[in-house]
Each structure stands twice: as structure tokens, then as C-alpha cells.
Batch of 2 targets.
Target 1
Amino acid sequence: MDRIPILKLGRALLVSIQVDIHDRLAKALEEDLSERIVATGARGVMIDISGLEIVDSFMGRMLDNIAAVSRLLDADTVVVGMRPAVAITLVELGLSLTGVKTALNVERGMALIGSGQYEEIDGDDALEGGDERNDG
Amino acid sequence: MEDGFATLSKIVGERESAIVTRWRQLLVEAGGSGRIKDAEVEKQCQDFLASFVAGLGGGATSATDPAFAKARELLAEVSRSRANQGFTPTETATFVFSLKEPLFEQVRASYPDDAARVASIGWEMTQILDQLGLYTMEVYQRSREDVVRRQQDEIAELSTPVVKLWEGILALPLIGTLDSARTQVVMENLLQAIVDQSADLAIIDITGVPTVDTLVAQHLLKTIAAARLMGADCIVSGIRPQIAQTMVHLGVELDVVSKATLADALALAFQRTGRTVVRKAIAKG
């Protein structure tokens, strides 16, 4: 069965969706992603949908689901690279993905996830805990 | 029917120059031809009469017959050019209808003693010219509609510019009412500009929007939601005092950051992107 690759970039995970998503693929992605978030202790998940030209309500719900799962596992979700036509379609469908952060491209998305980390450095020793998890 | 047309065709063919002269005289009397050169009017008259005769001779029984294709084409051309030159409907229709009188005169002159025949040929002639006249009006109307449609497109295009205020900061000055069609154009322009300029902030200025009702507010929110999906934040500026009051009375809620003026919005945008504006003493030389 096809699987969507999940790449680790520092303390973020990058998922690049380049093919049409169907039910099983979405389910597999959700499972893989939640496992990888726990395994790597990632603080952010970036979903790159620059390759997507067509979206439907199913796709919108999938993004919402992933965001909700990630939030439970203490990772921010950032959707990056959405095309103008896709954005208009989602808005017309009434799906404005309120629970998800967005960024123009992967670079900006990384900056967004990174900015969350700096807050933690200022705040307490959460970073150390995170590092230990990474080493282990 | 066909007999009448054949006779008419013969009469017109024989007395073409007399008919054209009289026809042009009538057109001048009707007025409005001052905007077109005399030579052009004469050419239009001659060409139309020639194709009219050809149509009559071709065995046509009504103005929609293929034999009249050439005549209809000429009329469409005349009608379209007059519509664009700002002629009134009456002036445009007069072109065809004023042909009736000279034609009838010539038919009467051909059969001075046969009133019944003159009447029957005259009736057929009137019918065919009426049909052609109506066709002229149809083309005229269509041309005017084209002009209106083109102007609407141009207005829509003109009134939705996206301007770059600073690196990564866009402004969208909206002018006029926001309906669904315009929202679509505005949204597309804004989103494309966000991609092109890698912008992360967009200021939507609604100083030029006359009223904000629930529908307009919904359209604004849609645009803002779409921009957010592309990773850009929006600031709304230029809400006038009366509009703010109306919005509150209507219960319209714009759940976004809003500033009174474009300048305030730009200051906020600078602050959010970590920029400061510094005034320096200018050396007077």
C-alpha cells in the first residue's frame, strides 16, 4: 500500500502531500504521523500541500483531524504552500481550518514552529526535557 | 409573393440612382447623419440597396431567408457602428425605414394606373423592410449591451488593485460595493499577490465601501479566511464612524483586527514585522 513519507527536520516533521488523497491513505497518514510525533518528540508538524490542485471537504476534514491529534500530542500543525485556488475552494466550502496554523511556504512554516521553541527557552526547562527525549 | 418580389427587384434595379438620391435626402432630413461622412452614408446606401435587390432576386420570401444574408450582414455592420458612435435607436432604425418612401414612390410611378398592384407590392415591401428594421434594432441592442458589459468588466478590474506598501506588506483599497462576483475577483487578486510578493500581512482598506451590511461583512470575512489559509494575516482599516455604528446596530461582527485609518494599520503592520519608523533631523543646506 502507498504511504506518504514523513521527514524529520530538526524538531519538526514534514509531510509533503503530492498525490491525491483517498480514505485509506489519509487513515494511514494519521496513524503514521501520530506514532512518529511520539517517537521523535516533535514539537511541530508541517503539512506541505503545494502539490495539491484539488481539494474537497474530505481533505479539509483530514487536515482538521491531523491538527487535533497533533495538538493532543503537544505538536503544532502548520499547513504550508496552499494554492490560491485551493484556499478559495476551502473558504467556499465553509472550511477555514480554524485550528490550524498556516504559512506561505516551508521556510516560513519552519520559522513559525521555531518561534514557538524560543518562547519555551524563555519560559522554563522544557527544552532540556525535549532533548533528552531526542537522545533516547 | 415571389412575383411581387421579382417585380420590386426589377423596379429597384432600374431606378437605383433615383432611389439612393431620395433616400439620402430623407436621411439628411431625419438628422443625426452629421456624425458620419456623406461619402460613407452614400456607400452604405448603395451597398445595402444592391444586396437588397440581390436578395429579392434570389427568391427570398422573408428577411430571414439565406438570400438576404448579405443584406443582413451589411445592416448589422451599419447598426453596430452607429451604436458605438452614440446614435439613438430612432436614428439607427431610420436608416432602413426611410427607404420605404422612395421605394414606394418608384413602385407607384411604374404602375400609375394599377392601384391594386401598387398596394400589393407595397405591402410586401413594407413587410420585408419592417423585418429588416427589427433586425437592425436587435443588433443595435446587442452592441449596446456589449459596450455595457465591457465597461462593467473594466470597472471591476480598475476597482480591485492590490498595492505593495512595504516588503511583505500588501494593501487592498476597496472601492464600491462588494458583491459575490467582485469578492471572487478581489480574492483571486489578493491571493495571487500574496504568492507573488511572499507577503505575510495584508491591509484591507474599506474607506471606499459605501455600506457594510451582513452580506458585505460575510464577503470580507471570506477574503480574510482565504488569505489566512495562505499564511497571511489581514488587518481591516478605514471603517468610517457611521459605518461602524451601522455595523453594530445590524449586529455585524468582524472578528478581525481593525484600525481606523490606513496609517494606523501600516503602523501596526510595521510593529508586527519588527520594524520601527525613525524620524531624523534633516540638515538644511
Target 2
Amino acid sequence: MTRGAIHNRDAFLEHIAHRLGRAPRLSGVSRPQWSNQPQWKVLAGYSQDDLLAVLREQCKLIHTDYIETTNAGLAGVLKQQVTAYGGGPVIVPDDPRFAEYGLSALLRDEWPAEQTTVHIWNPALGRQNIDAAEQANVGIAFSDITLAESGTVVLFSRNEQGRAIHFLPKTYIAIVPKSTVVPRMTQAAAVIHEQIEKGGLVPSCINFITGPSNSADIEMNLVVGVHGPMKAAYIVVTDR
Amino acid sequence: MPMKIENGPFWKRVEENLHNDFMRGAVAGMQDRGYVRRLGVIEELGHWEEWRSLAEQIRKHTLENLDFYLMQLSENVAKRGGHVFFAQTAEEANDYIRRVALEKQAKKIVKSKSMVTEEINLNPVLEAIGCQVVETDLGEYILQIDDHDPPSHIVGPALHKNKEQIRDVFQRKLGYTKSSDPVELARHAREMLRRDYLTADIGITGCNFAIAESGSITLVTNEGNADLVTALPKTQITVMGMERIVPTFEEMEVLVSMLTRSAVGQKLTSYITVLTGPRDEGDVDGPEEFHLVIVDNGRSSILGTEFQPVLQCIRCAACVNVCPVYRHIGGHSYGSIYSGPIGAVLSPLLGGYDDYKELPYASSLCAACTEACPVKIPLHELLIKHRQIIVEREGKAPAAEKLAMKAFRLGTASPSLYRFGTKLAPSAFAPFAEDGRITKGPGPLKAWTESREFPAPSKERFRDWFQTRQKGGNPS
């Protein structure tokens, strides 16, 4: 990676130090131990089943369809939900979990046989992926971390999972393995922070997505579906 | 749009806005519904005072070590291949962004909502070199196509417009033929803006929180517009006020939790996006080039002064949403893109007393703003400090102060008198609500007694104040 340029930094930071009435402080600062940490008390001690109940309730508030299934039932439920949203075209990341969860046949045989177009994100195809996302009726992705409190799916971008999958299709389905559910954003932030401390690089885009796109800019009326997807569903896989 | 949005004397603006019945009804409805929603999510979260105390510690620590965290941030952005420009002034920031636009031969630029780009008046600079600049936040889009009508609220910029007015603007400017139904209006905007996202050369965003440890920026929206602005154009420029930074993901998380609750009463908004540098090698979308512009524009003059706490602000507008004065005079009366109590503190600091000397008096000092602030900025105390400076500077108190203080003395002599005073009927809570849409109804007694926040004063009381003021004449 070529290092980027930094302009005017020294004078800018010296001026700040001057205003603060001390010498510039450019290294050696560490976060203090914050005296209160109420974020860790939220949903503390909840079991995975308790968290799922919280998630289920929260989905009602965020205009998101909530469906539970087992791994064995997933392909059928997913197919049904895509039909409920009006069918294809469908766009998905190139994610090994589709195979691990037994969805390869649906993606590669069943849907194409029924004239439902399936686009699997492929970096080699460049811009075609974005065109496919723009034309897609349904985008489908696996949640990497799921936040029970707010009903949020967390998605890390990678070559095989472009950002447009979550934003350009008309509707959106997140597959949520039960094991990915944590109490709230606190746990997700802690995991990411820990990776950074160990020298890991965060992906260029991390999305925290909570239901469909919406706006209240016209007379405070809630309009669901503005720039991003107009409908959203979470399919929770209870035995994964 | 520069920070200053309207000419004419303050009291004239106030008088005009007092006659804008739709605006006043909309503001009152927003405040009432917002109040109930915000208290609801705060109550559900629990330990709110601990949260506020934590948020305050985070903001204070970051400001006290701002040079260190900006150093760390810029190093990490550069390591990820992004470019960082430190701009002392609005002109320096605009010059740099213009140079990038020229270099990219940009024709179309899409923007997501950003107060700081309004503050530095960026759009005309880009339009002057032939760029089409498209605001993509629905509220800002409406204002932009309506010949740059100024925003009246930090979070809901088009709050003062009704749906019929919006339909008329869409008909006039966009060839719109459908109804004034908000869903149809929003769908039309969706279609128009889709094309813009897909064909824009540059995406420009603001920044809710930069994260020093990773060189990331965090964007908070409900519409998803910031995501399309940053996913599709080849170049991304993010403009941030220099104080909008936290040490790590963990502090970002705490402040986002407080921002979304305080601003819109949501646990999280629909889209919270953390972006780091340009796209990763091998990615298909995301920008090829990323520029971060860090803006001072008067902020450093606030550092090291008694006004430093105002830089703790996370732009949630909770103070605006509880302010009884804002309730009656609306955002446009403030003459600044920063309205309400935070605007009354910040605008004179960034824009000078000559333009904004009246704003510190546009307050009853009831302290509802201070109580509502999630990062514990002592807003009403800072308003008093402003008044002290104005008095010292002018050698005497402006007439406005004496009158305002006199009119409010009775009502605000003590919080308990105010709260339990005879005027506190349920009707005083919603003098302009259009219908029965206050979801918890007139009896949120639990919330009332548990909260130390003040209800909005009655219409009559404000009228008294305003009339008293008018009789006494005014200095501007």
C-alpha cells in the first residue's frame, strides 16, 4: 500500500498545543480507565436464547421481518422469503458459508432453473457487479456479528463481498447464525478494537445495518425505503 | 450555504417566524414526540447519568489531548493510503477540495449531510468550477432544489416545510406529477438520486466520529445515502471538524449509542458505517482515492478558554429539541446553520459577536438544554458567559437582556416552581400539536417526575415575554 500524503500537519498541531497552553503532545498518551462503564451492564448475563428473544422484539420496532429456522430448513425459508419479496434477480457475496449452510443447490441450480437470476459477487467482473446489484431485487448476506439490543447486523467488506450488495437492491435479507448474536454494539466494538491492538487491519468498510432504509424528513412522517433497501428480513439459523 | 443564513435584525426574524403557524406547529410536534421517544429509549437503556458521565470523560480527554489523537488519526489514514489535509481556515479547506475536483475533472459530486461543509460554504466553490453538486440527504435535497432554502434544524433541516410545499417544489423543479404523500415524494427523490450516485465522480461526506486508533471515519444515517455516496464514486472526500474524533472503536461505540438516542430516539440508526482509507486492493466498490480534510475554522480559538466544553458537542440537537425558545421562534430566527441552544453558544464563537450578539439572549436560561445534553456541555452557563463578555465589550447590557431576564424571572425562579407551577397543564406540553400523536399521551407522569428536564413553557408565557420585549424597543 502506498502511503498517503499529509499536508500542513505540524503547524496545525503546534497551534492546538499552544492554545491548550502546553508543549505538543504527539506520542505517549493512553486512554484513561473510564470511571463508569455502563455499556457492559446492558443485557449482561443474558443467555443466547434470551438475546434471541430481545432481537425478535426489536425487529418489530425496526420494520424488519424476523424468521427463525434450523439449518435444515434454511434453503426452503430463504427461497420462500425471496418469493415474498417478489423474486429475483438475487445478488449474493462469494461467501463459503452459503455452501456450509447447504445453499449451493438453491443458488446454482434451483433458482437458475426457475429463471431466477443469481449473481455471485466476483471481483474479476469489476463494474458488472455494481450493475447487477443495481438491478437486483434481493440482496442476501450473512451477518458477521449480530446485535440483539438494536437489531443490527454487522458486515465486514472484503473482495468477495462488495458494499453495494447491502444498499442497491430493492430488498435485503440477512442470514443470522444464532452464534453471532451478542448483546449490543459494545461487544462488536471490543472485538474490532482487540484485532487492531494485535496489529490487524480493519476492512475498508464495516457496516452496522439496522433494518431497511428510512427517513422522517417530510413532516416527520416515517417513510421506509429511501435510498437503500425498502424491505428487510433477518433469517435466524437457530442451530448454527 | 455559509454558516450565516439570513440577513435582517434578529428581532425582525423572530417576529416573522412567530407568525409562521405551520413551522411552529411542526416544531412543537417534533419536540413533543421527540421528547417522549428520547426519554423512552433513555429509560430502557438505564443508568443514563453514568452514560453521560462516561461520554463527558471521553470528550474531555480527547479534547485535552487533541494534538495527539489527530497525529495518530492522520498517521493511520496515511498508512492505509488516504490523504490528509489540515485546514486552518475555511478557505484552505475549500481550496484543497477544489484542487482535488479539478484534478479529477469532476462534473458531478454527490454529498451526504455535513454541517461542516455548510459552515465552510463549500458548494458554491465547487459550482464555480462547473461541478454539479447534489445533496442526497432527503431533507437537504428538498432545500437544495428549493433554491437553497436554509436549514432550520441540525438533524431535520427541512422541518419547517410542509408536504404540500415540498410537492410544489418537486413539481416546479423536477417535473413531479404525483401527490403530496410523503411516501410518493420520497420514492421520487430515490429515483432521481439513484442516477446521481451511479454517475458521480466524487462523493463528499461529513464525519460523525473519526477513530484515531485505525484512521477510520464513522457515518451515521437512516437513509443509507452516505453509504451510496462512499461506495460508488471513484473519489471520496470527507470533511471533519477537528474535534470530531475519539481514541478507539470502544469510545466511538459509546458516543454513537448516545448520539442516536439523543438525536432521534433510536437505539441505533439504520446505517452506521465505519470506513477506513480507500477501497482495499482487489475490492470492486468503495473509492479508489480517499481524502480527509480536517478543519479548524475558529475551533482552536475556543480551546483553552472557558468555552472549551462546547467542543464536546456531538451534534445530536437534543438541546434544540427541548428548548422552549426554539419551540416558538424556530431555527431560521437564529440566522445560523447552528440553531437552538448549541447554536446560540457556538455561532458567536465561530461567527463573531457582531453577527450573533443577540443569540445568547435567545434563552430563558431554564437549563433544559444542559439537562438534555448527552455529553454534559453546560450550555446555559456558557450563554451567561457570552452575556458577560457582551456586557463588558459594550459597556452595558443590551436592552434585550434586561427585558428577557425580567420576563422570565417569575417562571424560572426555581426549577421546582417551574415544574409544578399552575401553568403546567398537559396542554402546556403540546400547545401546537396537530393531533393526538403524542404516543404516551398527556400523562407521562413517570417520565416527568423522574426526569429533571423542563417542559416547554406555555404559549402565553412566551407571548408575554415577546410583547414585553417589543414595548421596550430593541437595540438592533
